[in-house]
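Fold this: Endoplasmic reticulum transmembrane protein
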Amino acid sequence: RWQKIFMFPLWSKMAVFWNKMFLTIIVLLIVLFLDAVREVRKYSSVHVNEKAANVNSSAFDHIQMKLFRSQRNLYLSGFSLFLWLVLRRTVTLLTQLAKEMASHAALETQVNDATEAAKKYMAENERLQEALSGKGNGKKKESTDATEEKLKEEVERLKAELQKTSNAFHKAKTEVAAVKKQSEGLRRDYDHLMKEYEQLQQNLNKAEDKKDL
């Protein structure tokens, strides 16, 4: 289902646009993060200097408000930048998982087809052997031997192809399991970060409410 959604022709046409938009948002978040770091350092130093100078309370409260807002902007821009990268990685893993699942299904179909063909040739070989055991004509026997030898070669070739396809199938299955495991780990990390982000947001809201009071 995800593969069908991601493989729409519309997405391929908009891929360049979305990549540019993603890079633009990354650059914007980096700029906001660096600006927030600068503001925090600026108002932290001013806060210490004003506190040491024992200025009036209104100016000190104003500096504290600026420091709080700059710290809030720092946390929000930092978490937004990190979560945006996590989202990008999650989409990439989902796309890889969909492709691996599709290749897994194709390899399974190929293995089934090769197995059916091998069974068919083996059944024909058995019928030829039965016919050979019931006839004594030398010319027919020689012709049947040649046909049997050819069928044996064909069976061996199909067995080799079946083994090769089976190995590719197991390899794809292992890759799919690895991608699934990586996706689960990333999802757990994402859930943990979201919980920390919500807790930090609640703390910031409480601190802002206290500041307003």
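The two ends are 52 Å apart (CA to CA). Residues 132 and 142 are 10 Å apart (CA to CA).
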